[in-house]
Amino acid sequence: MAALATIATLGLNVLSAQQTARAQERQNLAQHAANDAAAQARIAELRRLGEVEELRREDALRQELAARRARFAGRGVSPTEGSAAAVLGGLAAESKQASLEDAYLRNAEIRDIQNARLSQGRINLLQAADAQARGRLRALQRGIPFSQSIGTSLLER
Predict the structure, then answer these.
(1) How far apart are CA 61 and CA 145, in angstroms?
(2) Domains of the chain, residue spans
(3) How far apart are CA 39 and CA 113, in angstroms?
(4) Which of 27, 74, 102, 155 qualifies as a FRET site for 96, CA 20 to 30 Å off?
(5) What is the CA angle 111-115-116, rounded to 5?
(6) What single-letter DSSP state applies at residue 77?
(7) Each residue of 100-150: pLDDT tens digit?
(8) What contacts 103, CB < 8 A, 6 or more positions away?
């Protein structure tokens, strides 16, 4: 009868360990989903801000080019020839370079966020596997005294 009680206790211990591992896994998945959603939102925000900044930069360039053309025309200089054309071309090149640099920095930040998401996913998988392994180990540890007592009682018979 004592052996039956020990088997029942072992079964309950295994079930409890499994439930704890499942609860931990659900918690890890929920945390991963929340982190993933936050990362995706940040990436979307960075892209949106990049688009807004690009539109602002293009608008500022158009205004500056128009103002410079007007000044050149007011002085009687053709904006499509000579140094006036070089000045206007330089403004456009500077704007394009600034745009490329901003895009590079924004894309680097997006890559960092994506890499962090991937790393966190790997960590979550490792934590889930570790929790399962610990649960199995606890169940085995709880079962060892039982199996030792069975072995002893079988040898005594």
Answers:
(1) 80
(2) 2-156
(3) 6
(4) 74
(5) 120
(6) -
(7) 999 999 999 999 999 988 887 777 667 767 777 777 777 677 666 544 545
(8) 50
